[in-house]
Amino acid sequence: MEKNEYSDCILCPNMCHVNRMETTGICRQKDTVRIAWAGLHRGEEPPITGEHGSGMIFFTGCPLHCQYCQNRQISGSDGDNYGIDVSEDELSSIMLSLQEDGAATLNLVTGTHFIPSITAALDKARAEGFSIPVVWNSSGYESIHGLELIDPYVDLYLLDCKTLSCQTASRFCRKEKYADYIIPVMDWIKEHHPTTDLESLRGTVLRHLVFPGELESSISFLRYFAEHYKDNFILSFMTQFVPPKEKIYFPSISEDEIDRILSLMDSLGIEDGFMQDPDEDDILWIPDFTKDVPFPESFADPDPYFLSIKHR
Ligand code: SF4
Asked: Which of 47, 85, 243, 312 could form a disulfide with 198 if both were Cys (CB 3.0 to 4.6 A apart)?
């Protein structure tokens, strides 16, 4: 008999070993899939966004509760649990609807804690004609076991590497040992998918967000990236740091810091990839999942699959 992955959960590095049919682990989710928003979104890297937008599904809950989380209304970082429960059949229908709406990609955002349900829904959707590329949009906080389960379904990894510094990880991610997990994850993906081709949307786009006051952490990351993954992954360098709504305030990154990063990339031979424009005011926002459309108009589908999010 096939193992129920939720019965003794080791889907992420937290390895809670709980029975999620009865209780929750650190991700704060039981075995029923919960979704905070689904619809077309134009704010991803251009090949992922395509002409009409990426078909995003934001899952409620998260195994990693970062101090700076910008999706904290849905990640559970503050104890909120915005979203609606959906069955595997409903999840499959949403995937097909996004494809019908013209999505260039299916973009699964923080789905780690629902991997078994997601793969079941993808099987159902594919049996009914679902065929667009699948993007696994992840914090990078994955277990190898979870990766082995989801990998056959993934075309492109859109993976965070937040930092390789224990101190920075402790300050921003509340997970001092983050680097101990992200490096094996990147190595595993590199071994199984050594090249990235954005035309066919295969491989890995590695996202790195610069934390304010933590330039040395980003510099260390870039050196490591250049040495280990430059020929395998595409870099997406992000500067969209908006202070989360809490008492701690982090100053924004300076133009001088951006210039220093750019010249370092040049000297390290990192020529390909994406970078957010730090002068673009449009990027200074935090999604509000209590609204029908959580994003600025220019980013979001005006007619998303879910029109309202209920706080249940
Ligand atoms: S997904 Fe991770 S955090 Fe959630 S119960 Fe399983 S091991 Fe724990």
From this structure: 47
Q: What is the CATH number of the domain that holds 134?
A: 3.20.20.70
pLDDT tens by residue, 33-87: 999 999 998 888 999 999 999 999 999 999 988 877 777 777 776 667 888 999 9
Helices (H), the chain: 46-49, 72-75, 88-100, 115-127, 144-150, 166-168, 178-192, 215-228, 255-268
| Dihedral Cα 125, 128, 133, 136, nearest 10 deg | 10
What local confidence, expressed as pLDDT, does residue 78 receive?
66
Domain that holds residue 107: 33-283
Report the distance separating Cα 233 and Cα 189, nearest Å.
Answer: 10
CA atoms within 13 A on the CB side of 297: 0
Our count of domains for the chain comes to: 1
- Asked if 25 and 18 count as a contact pair (C-beta separation under 8 A), the reply is yes
In a domain, 308, yes or no: no
* 289 lies in some domain: no
**Residue 106 lies inside a defined structural domain of this protein:** yes
Tens digits of residue pLDDT in 136-193: 999 999 999 999 999 999 999 999 999 999 888 888 888 888 999 999 999 999 999 9
**For ligand 1, what atom is nearest to the CA of residue 9?**
6
Ligand 1, CB cutoff 6 Å, lining residues: 9-12, 14-16, 18, 20, 25-27, 63, 113
Q: Which atom of ligand 1 is found nearest the CA of 61?
A: 4
> For residue 279, is it within any domain?
yes
